[in-house]
What does this fold into?
Amino acid sequence: MRILFLVYHGFSEHSGISKKIHYQVNGLRQNGYEVHLCSYGFAENGHRCRFIDDCVLVDYGTGVQAGLRQRMEYNQLFDYCQKNGIEFVYARCFQNANPWLIRFFRRLREAGIHAVTEIPTYPYDAEFKTFSKKERLGLKIDQLFRHRLYRYMDALVTFSDAEEIFGQRTIRISNGVDFDSIPLHSPRSSLYSPLSPLHLIGVAEVHSWHGYDRVVAGIGEYYAHGGQRDVFFHIVGGVHPNTMKDVFRPLIERYGVQNRILFHGQLFGDALTDIFNQCQFAIGSLGRHRSGITVIKTLKNREYATRGIPFIYSEQDSDFDNQPYIMKAPADETPIDIPSIISFMAQFTMSPQEIRKTVGHLTWKIQMRKVIDEVNKLIHE
It folds into this structure.
């Protein structure tokens, strides 16, 4: 089978989303499929281009008209699919439903080419509350056309438990893991000494749904009520200046924990691993309820488990809810209970290797095979 993996943006060397997409493509190839990756971005000369496997398919030029053309012109991509025998298109939602995209997928269906779209986060509308006016306008356009667009899909791929999204049936999978890209956790300090410092780590491009402010408040409350153990929270990833000013700084100053909340910015490779190895416990999402999400299988949970570090989160995730190396926080606005994490770690005995073994079934090869198997079933219904 020849597959086109379609994304509507470009890639960044250090982006978690970019890495995930390449892992998915590799997972499909590991199952024996010929896969070509279509993306959109800027060429070295500054022109807006649509690429297939790093080769320019369409050069839209520069300026406002070029930006409009890339949103409206899919004829060359359709011709590519026909001429190159593409049988299946796996697209990744970019909240960009519009009449021209509808026409593209309608033509694919008429040509006998099957398609699915992955909805990375569902529901996603509430996530736009804090976004710019331009981004919220884009969402309004998406809301107008997404039901019509997804009529031309065989299914939507979701990491939630939703059986139907936007009127279309779903294929439910988990976010996957790539063992070769994530080193095993090797903590430097004892996990069990009641006197040693406790270092927490959260890795994300920080948004409200990560709920890291709940950890800051939890550390503040711990010391406000006589806490004696040294506790530090390492935040790795970008933090928007407004979030720093309006959310983190007021909390940090209110509780006087300036020396306990450490912002490292974006880190990658050995630098990221070095911070992980200073820490004993990781922080998953603690605010998904803020964007109306109850059930989600986040990539971050799987990355933590692949490293072999215990962690906490507040959503429902059936891959981890009953694992002995996780803690569940209530899906509300209460500060995180730091004494409970300290007690948990004082009794924790699993090794990083033992944690990692529990996610062997979550490789991208297995998860992407589920998609193809389900599509084949739908085709032959």
Q: What stands out?
A: The radius of gyration is 22 Å. The chain has a mean pLDDT of 94.
